[in-house]
Amino acid sequence: MITKYARHASLSALVVVIALVTTVSIAATENKIPYQPDFVRLVEQGKISNAEIISEPSGATYIRATITGTEEKDKKTVKVDVLPADPFATLLKEKGIPFSFKRQQSLFYKCTSILPAIAMFLIWILWITVIIAVFWLAFRLVRAVERIAENTKK
Questions:
Q1: What mean pLDDT do residues 116-144 have?
Q2: What are the structural domain ranges in the chain?
Q3: C-alpha Rg value of the chain to the nearest Å
């Protein structure tokens, strides 16, 4: 019995290690630049084509901006961590750079649209289980009464 769990534990550990390595490598490949002076300089030089201001559920705010180059293939997206006190919206508006606000939703908020359907499904399963249990007990009771009747006839 222990060997079966040991096999699954090693597989689980392998999956966790792969997930961690993938997450770290994705985070490492994201281009980050500081707000001051790099992002401000790029905005003033007109190298930012559009920006998206993203607010996370944790309260962190960052800008995902597209830097344009001389050719289409030179475009790259960068992430800029900002503080709420930084005047990033006014800076983008003054330079005529199109931007949008996006609020990321937490996983719990995304799942709330599914929860009523799951709750209804579980209630139906519960009622079906109760009905089956009542019938099963009733048939057992009938069989017990039949056995008692057979024993009293003897």
A1: 91
A2: 1-29, 31-104, 106-154
A3: 31
